[in-house]
Amino acid sequence: MSAGADPAVRVAGAGFRYARGTAGDLAAEGVSGISFELAPGTVTLLCGASGSGKTTALRMLNGLVPQFHRGELTGEVTVAGDTVPTRPLHEAGRTTGMVFQNPRTGFFTDAVLAELAFGSENLGADRDTTVARVRAAAAATGVTGLLGRGLGGLSGGQTQQVAFAAAIAAEPPVLLLDEPSSNLSAEAIGRLRRLIAEQRAAGRAIVVAEHRLHFLRDLVDQVLYFREGRIERRFDGESFFALDEATRRDLGLRRLTAPDRPAPPAPPAEAAGTGLELHSVRFGYRGRPVLDIDRVAFPAGRITALTGPNGCGKTTLARIICGLADPARGGEIRLAGRRLRAAARARASYIVMQDVGRQLFADTVAGEVTLGLDRAAAAAVDVDGLLAELDLAGLQGRHPQSLSGGQRQRLVLASALAQDKRVHILDEPTSGVGRAHLEAIAARMRALADAGAVVVVVTHDEELIEACADHEVHLPAVNRVAGAGAAD
């Protein structure tokens, strides 16, 4: 920052503790004593383990704490000249645009076009200005083709792209991005990188909270490493991406360079005998084709990565496999040679959804693990052991929705592990998790496969594929899989 220039963001000695329950008792979780400044035209990376305080720090900058999430805020938080705690929350759009870890939680409308226009309209911009901003934001993010779509019918990756478009459409001086690469394909991550570079060049201050790090090389000006609610270490971008492997692993960070892996082989044709086999599976939404699969097999006792570009139908296929949807007439799904209808597929399988918030129903973490099991089955589950393996020890009494995004992801995985199912589908299970948790999730999936289950992981995460996948089935953009190996 040049001498005399005002920072876009100034945080001085700030802390926040969340209020719990109707009594408003203050929790230990949050952040404390954090200080930093952001200059216009710079990128700041927040990194550290899930639950270390990164999302709370972002919420401090857009006013969601303490005005939406109740609790006690201390210290000074100033964004674009506004004192955030005293600014009306509806004014936040003038200074910040936010992409949430779960983008759907930040939407105000039910249609892509309306969502992109919302920020400008809410701030009183005229029609011509709003239209120009929407067109520019849609073109920049590659969502022009989605402008006529509803938000509810988008894939996770498409939702992420729309959220970014909405964040930049009102042209705020500060952008806050919480795990923006989660659920994005390699192509979409490349587009995200270009967008961040363009927004930086336009003079915006950008804060990125991320676990997937390699795509930010040569973009980041400063790095704030969080541990247990505090900023423990600070780096400039060059020194951070020059960290040696031992230091990187000690800090619990993911790769600083992109994985360079050979693709796992396609499942062998003979895998269908004991595993899952799909024939003539076709599906569409309101006349729009989504899936066209001649045949594909997912072997038992193996981990198969289901990959493909955003919007190609991966999550739809996962829903069909586990009985939440049915293919068009003529489609057939067999498990160990036996044809299964939707109800039987639902009984035989368990899915960890992309948006795990939709799967949390209990009022405690411990209760969530065994939810749906009968008394005898629940008693046989080592709840404390499962939670400890997934770094959730000590959280048994917490409400599931009070956890961080990565913690909720691992809690639903713990619930899946407690179920005695023959097919396990995990949809982007490592979005929002760091290296140690990725390795723990990979190990638990391996244990499921070793026990004889069919394990299918829907993912764009190259590090996860490298860590555990035995086979890969790729759904191409044209949504047609011709044989067991699925080629582009």
Structural write-up:
This protein is of the alpha/beta class and 488 residues long. The chain folds into 2 domains: 242 residues, Rossmann fold; 213 residues, 3-Layer(aba) Sandwich (Rossmann fold). The chain has 16 helices and 20 strands. The strands form 4 sheets. The protein has a 6-stranded mixed beta sheet, with helices on both faces. A 5-stranded mixed beta sheet has the order 15-14-11-12-20. It has a 5-stranded parallel beta sheet with strand order 16-17-18-13-19, sandwiched between helices. A hairpin with a 4-residue loop joins β1 and β2. α3 runs parallel beside α5 and α15 crosses α16.
Topology record:
Elements: E1 9-20, E2 25-38, E3 43-48, H1 54-62, H2 64-67, E4 71-79, E5 82-83, E6 96-99, H3 112-122, H4 127-141, H5 156-169, E7 174-178, H6 186-201, E8 205-209, E9 222-227, E10 230-236, H7 237-240, H8 245-250, E11 276-285, E12 288-298, E13 303-307, H9 314-321, E14 332-335, E15 338-339, H10 342-348, E16 349-352, H11 365-369, H12 375-379, H13 383-389, H14 405-418, E17 423-427, H15 435-450, E18 454-458, H16 462-468, E19 471-474, E20 480-481
Parallel strand pairs: 3-8, 3-9, 6-7, 7-8, 12-20, 13-18, 13-19, 16-17, 17-18
Antiparallel strand pairs: 1-2, 1-4, 4-5, 9-10, 11-12, 11-14, 14-15
Helix pairs in contact: 3-4, 3-5, 4-5, 15-16
